[in-house]
C-alpha cells in the first residue's frame, strides 16, 4: 500500500463537482447509463481493482499448486496486514470472511449460551443478521430482546439509552449495526462498549463502516467487529472480515472446520490456532481478499486520500438527499447529522407510496427506468423510506432525477412528525 494518497489531509466537506464525479464514474465498472444511488447495498468496484483481480485469478489458474501451496498464504498475510492498517485493527485478531453476514454468523457460532440467556439487538438491525440471531437463540433456548430506536430520532443519545435500558443480568450478547442498514443512522458503538457490563459481549455489525466512517476497530472496545470491504472500500464482491478482541481469540473458531483444527502449532509462536483455522476454510476464490490493498490504494488515489473520500461522500449524500427532499417534500430520517465517527454517506428519507403499492414494485419500476435506489419497508421505521447512497461517482442533480422518477411513480414525501 502506498502511504501517500491515503495520508493526504482531508478536503473541505463541500459537495464535489460534476467533472470529478464523471472522471470517477469512468474509473468504475459501472454502466454510465444507469443512475447509481445504491452504493450501500452491494458497493461498486473500480476497473483497476478488477484488473488486479483478473491477474490474480490468471496466476491461480495457471498453476494451482504453485499458487495455493506456495504463494497464497504469504499473499493473504500481506493483504491482512494492509487491511488491518486500513481498519485501525490489530492484524493478529483479523480474519477475512466472504461478507458481514458470514462474520455475524461466525460471532454467533462462538457463543456458549444457556437456556434463558438474552441476545440483545435493535429494531434497526439488518434482517439477515436478525434471522441468524433468532436461530442461535432458538437452538440454545435463549431469547432475542429488541431495543426500539424510536423514530424520529432527535436526540443523538437516545439509541444508546434504548439499548442500555434493555440490558439485564442475562444479556450475553449485544449485536448492533455500526451504520443501520434501513435508516443510515450511525450508532456510537464505542460509547456502548464502555457502558456495557462485562457479561454482555458487544458484537458490532460494521457492514458499512470501512471506507465510510473514521474507523479504528481497536478503539471501539467490541468483543468482535465484522464488516465488508466490498461496500465503501470498493473491493471486489466477497471481501469481508471478522476481528476478535485479544482476550477472546483462543478458541474463537471459523464457521467451517478445516485442516487448521488439527495442524500442529509450530514451536516459537510463529502462528496461532486462530490463524491456522481462519486462514484456510476450504478451496474457494480468495482473490477478493487479496484485492483489498488495491482497492484501498485505488479509491484513495481517485478521491485525494481516504479522509477526503469520506468527507466528500458524506457531503455528496447530504446534497443528494437535499435534492430528493426538495423534489418530494420528504424529511430526512436522520435528524442528527452530527453523528459519531463522521456520519454516514447514506441518507434515508421518509416517503408515502401510492395506495396499495408494494415497495418492491416501486423499486423495480425505478430499475426499469435505469435508476438504482432501494425503497425500504422495515419494522424499525414507521414510514416507507427511500435510501440514497453517495460515492465518488455521484454528481449534483442525481437526487433531482430520482425525485422526478419517484414523483412519476406516485411516491410523495413524508413530513416526519
Ligand atoms: C448492517 C448490515 N449488515 C450486514 C449486511 C450484509 O452484508 P453482506 O451481504 O455483504 O453480508 C448489510 C448489507 O447491506 C448491512 O447493511
Would you spell out the secondary-structure blueprint of this structure?
Blueprint: H1 3-6, H2 18-27, E1 35-36, H3 39-42, H4 47-62, H5 64-87, E2 94-97, H6 100-109, E3 118-122, H7 127-140, E4 143-147, H8 158-164, E5 171-177, H9 189-195, E6 201-206, H10 217-220, E7 224-228, E8 240-244, H11 273-278, H12 287-290, H13 292-303, H14 306-328, E9 346-352, H15 359-368, E10 371-372, E11 375-376, E12 385-389, H16 398-408, E13 412-413
Parallel strand pairs: 1-10, 3-4, 3-5, 5-6, 6-7
Antiparallel strand pairs: 2-8, 7-8, 9-12, 9-13, 11-12
Helix pairs in contact: 4-5, 6-7, 13-14, 14-16
Derived structural class: alpha/beta
Tally of distinct domains: 2
pLDDT average, as an integer?
A: 93
- Give the terminus-to-terminus CA distance: 48 Å
Uncertain regions spanning at least 5 consecutive residues? 1-12
The unique ligands bound to this protein are: pyridoxal-5'-phosphate
CATH architecture of the largest domain: 3-Layer(aba) Sandwich
CATH topology of the largest domain: Aspartate Aminotransferase, domain 2
CATH superfamily of the largest domain: Type I PLP-dependent aspartate aminotransferase-like (Major domain)
Number of strands: 13
Summarize the structure in words.
With 417 residues, the chain is an alpha/beta fold. It has two domains: 6-46 and 304-413, Aspartate Aminotransferase, domain 1; 55-295, Aspartate Aminotransferase, domain 2. It is built from 16 helices and 13 strands. It has helices at residues 3-6, 18-27, 39-42, 47-62, 64-87, 100-109, 127-140, 158-164, 189-195, 217-220, 273-278, 287-290, 292-303, 306-328, 359-368, 398-408; strands at 35-36, 94-97, 118-122, 143-147, 171-177, 201-206, 224-228, 240-244, 346-352, 371-372, 375-376, 385-389, 412-413. The protein has a seven-stranded mixed β-sheet, with helices on both faces. The protein has a four-stranded antiparallel β-sheet with strand order 11-12-9-13. The relative contact order is 0.18. Mean pLDDT is 93; it is low at 1-12. Pyridoxal-5'-phosphate (PLP) binds at residues 41, 99-101, 126, 128-129, 177, 181, 205, 207-208, 228.
Amino acid at each position: 500500500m502506498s502511504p501517500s494518497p491515503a495520508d493526504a489531509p482531508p478536503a473541505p466537506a463541500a459537495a464535489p463537482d460534476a467533472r470529478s464525479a464523471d472522471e470517477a464514474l469512468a474509473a468504475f465498472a459501472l454502466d454510465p447509463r444507469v443512475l447509481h444511488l445504491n452504493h450501500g447495498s452491494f458497493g461498486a468496484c473500480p476497473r483497476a481493482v478488477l484488473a488486479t483481480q483478473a491477474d490474480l485469478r490468471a496466476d491461480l489458474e495457471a498453476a494451482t499448486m504453485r499458487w495455493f501451496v506456495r504463494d497464497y498464504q504469504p499473499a493473504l498475510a500481506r493483504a491482512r496486514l494492509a487491511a488491518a492498517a486500513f481498519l485501525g485493527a490489530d492484524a493478529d485478531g483479523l480474519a477475512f470472511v466472504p461478507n458481514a453476514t458470514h462474520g455475524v454468523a461466525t460471532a454467533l457460532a462462538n457463543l456458549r449460551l444457556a437456556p434463558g440467556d438474552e441476545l440483545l439487538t435493535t429494531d434497526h438491525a439488518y434482517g439477515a443478521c436478525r434471522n441468524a440471531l433468532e436461530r442461535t437463540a432458538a437452538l440454545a433456548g435463549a431469547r432475542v430482546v429488541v431495543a426500539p430506536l424510536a423514530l424520529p430520532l432527535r436526540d443523538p443519545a437516545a439509541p444508546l439509552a434504548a439499548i442500555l435500558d434493555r440490558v439485564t443480568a442475562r444479556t450475553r450478547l449485544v449485536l448492533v449495526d455500526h451504520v443501520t442498514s434501513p435508516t443510515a443512522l450511525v450508532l456510537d458503538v464505542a460509547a456502548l462498549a464502555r457502558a456495557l457490563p462485562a457479561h454482555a459481549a458487544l458484537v458490532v455489525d460494521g457492514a458499512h463502516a470501512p471506507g465510510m466512517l473514521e474507523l479504528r476497530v481497536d478503539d471501539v472496545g467490541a468483543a468482535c467487529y465484522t464488516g465488508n470491504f466490498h461496500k465503501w472500500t470498493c473491493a471486489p464482491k466477497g471481501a469481508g472480515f471478522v476481528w476478535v478482541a485479544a482476550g477472546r481469540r483462543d478458541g474463537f473458531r471459523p464457521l467451517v472446520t478445516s485442516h487448521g483444527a488439527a495442524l500442529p502449532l509450530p514451536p516459537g509462536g510463529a502462528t496461532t490456532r486462530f490463524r491456522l483455522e481462519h486462514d484456510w476454510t476450504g478451496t474457494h476464490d480468495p482473490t477478493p481478499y487479496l484485492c483489498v490493498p488495491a482497492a484501498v490504494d485505488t479509491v484513495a488515489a481517485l478521491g485525494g486520500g481516504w479522509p477526503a473520500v469520506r468527507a466528500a461522500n458524506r457531503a455528496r449524500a447530504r446534497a443528494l438527499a437535499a435534492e430528493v427532499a426538495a423534489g418530494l417534500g420528504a424529511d430526512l430520517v436522520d435528524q442528527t447529522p452530527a453523528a459519531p465517527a463522521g456520519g454516514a454517506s447514506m441518507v434515508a428519507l421518509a416517503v408515502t407510496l401510492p395506495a396499495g403499492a408494494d415497495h418492491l414494485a416501486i423499486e423495480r419500476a425505478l430499475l426499469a427506468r435505469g435508476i438504482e435506489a432501494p425503497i425500504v419497508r422495515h419494522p424499525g421505521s414507521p414510514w416507507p423510506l427511500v435510501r440514497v447512497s453517495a460515492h465518488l461517482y455521484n454528481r449534483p442533480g442525481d437526487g433531482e432525477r430520482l425525485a422526478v422518477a419517484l414523483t412519476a411513480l406516485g411516491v410523495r414525501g413524508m413530513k416526519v412528525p
